[in-house]
Write a structure and sequence with these properties.
This protein is an alpha+beta fold and 254 residues long. It has one domain (16-247): Class II aldolase/adducin N-terminal domain (L-fuculose-1-phosphate Aldolase), CATH 3.40.225.10. It has helices at 16-31, 89-101, 114-120, 132-135, 153-160, 185-208, 217-228, 233-247; strands spanning 41-45, 52-55, 71-74, 107-111, 141-144, 170-173, 177-182. The chain is globular, with a radius of gyration of 18 Å. The protein starts with 15 loop residues before the first helix and ends in a 7-residue tail after the last helix.
């Protein structure tokens, strides 16, 4: 289970449970081929007002990140990019801006996964409810149609300005990728996993060229709410992935 690992070997590392969970999510994202070389970043707020956050270090492959490698950053620190272990400037621009301006989003996962990015590249990037997974996201995403280049601070602040609705926890970043949000690592990773699955189902359905069987708005909303209320699924998903990593002898929790 997440959070049950002993921390005696690393007594000076704060937020150890959060670190191991976030690192496990990074490792599994690489295993699912949803990563982007040494780019893309995950972050998690660790203080009450959401301005201090953990994030994976600059230019380290997801498959090699360890819990002790994660950076502890302050969204209000103007000297962050002058640190010797400074984060990727685009990661700072996007994640720092959102943790500073949208504290209701505690965990952020940004990827360029294939099917979600294909969806983000369509002129109409909406995800219609054609199955249970796509219905999960009914009225729960925002589409950014104003891509302005790499996500330095100005672009990050622009994106943050679109995230005031706490119900909408996925940003389909037009011409870019996706940003997934949540309260915990487990919730956010589970949402990211299922969004990629949903996007793949939709893209593959479009490829058949045949008419789509649409779910009604009423049933799509009912399904989305039922899944939001489904007890413990996200937590068990992450716990099982961490158990597999432990059984394999992974060094993610070091």
């Amino acid at each position: 289970m997440p959070g049950t690992r002993p921390i005696a070997a690393t007594p000076n590392i704060a937020h150890w449970q959060e670190r191991t969970e976030l690192t496990a999510a990074l490792r599994w994202t690489e295993r699912l081929n949803m990563h982007e070389a040494v780019a893309n970043h995950f972050s998690l707020a660790v203080n009450e007002d959401g301005t201090q956050f953990l994030m994976n270090p600059n230019q380290v492959h997801f498959s090699r990140v360890r819990a002790s490698d994660l950076l502890l950053l302050d969204a209000n620190d103007p000297d962050t990019l002058d640190r010797p272990d400074a984060p990727d400037p685009t990661a700072w621009g996007l994640h720092g801006s959102i943790h500073r301006l949208c504290p209701h989003h505690r965990c952020l996962m940004h990827v360029h996964s294939i099917h979600a990015t294909v969806l983000a590249s369509l002129a109409d990037s909406n995800l219609p409810p054609i199955d249970q997974n796509t219905a999960t996201f009914f009225n729960r995403y925002v589409i950014d149609e104003g891509y302005g280049g790499l996500a330095f601070e100005e672009e990050g602040a622009r994106c943050a300005g679109m995230l005031d609705d706490p119900k909408k926890k996925v940003m389909i970043m037009g011409n870019h990728g996706i940003l997934v949000m949540g309260d915990t690592v487990a919730e956010t990773f589970n949402r990211m996993y299922y969004f990629e699955r949903a996007a793949e189902t939709y893209i593959r359905a479009l490829q058949t060229g045949r008419p789509l069987r649409m779910i009604s708005d009423e049933i799509a909303e009912k399904t989305a709410q039922e899944l939001e209320d489904y007890p413990g699924q996200a937590e068990r998903h992450l716990a099982e992935l961490m158990a597999i990593l432990d059984e394999e002898g992974s060094n993610y929790a070091s």
